[in-house]
Amino acid sequence: MKKRILMLIVLLLLPLVMFSQQTETINGIKFKVTNQRLFLKDEKLFAVYKNYLDSKGNFQFGHIIVAKRNDSLFITGKLKTDKNGKIVCTEKYNYGNLFLKDSIQRIYRINKKNKAVLKEYKEFYQGVLIKDFIPDKRK
Predict the structure, then answer these.
(1) Could you tell me the pTM of the whole model?
(2) Keywords for this entry (predicted)?
(3) What is the mean pLDDT of residues 66-78?
(4) Which residues pair with 115 in a beta bridge?
(5) What is the C-alpha to C-alpha distance for residues 130 and 12, in angstroms, rounded to an integer?
């Protein structure tokens, strides 16, 4: 009798465990998504970082969703996609003096192997572009 009850519990919980992995489809490609809680020691901030993984569990890209200290919101982030296959991660810094920038923007593209590749990194301060980095195009 105990074995049957145990087996029934396992059968009921198994789908919850199997399908608890969150997935998102971006530009026709499925990514596993995990949220990771981090403590940014230098700034003394508690952050939630969203990671996007390929089907094998390899990290592709990520961005900060939110970073707080006590009740103050220091960083907010969001992800946008477009029809051309660009993935744009934007993080806005609500206290510019702390980070010496207002926001950052990372632009990714999916290559032929379905891997996200960083194409451009930008930093802004008071709406003015202060740093623009384009990685080596051979990669």
Answers:
(1) 0.75
(2) Signal
(3) 90
(4) none
(5) 55
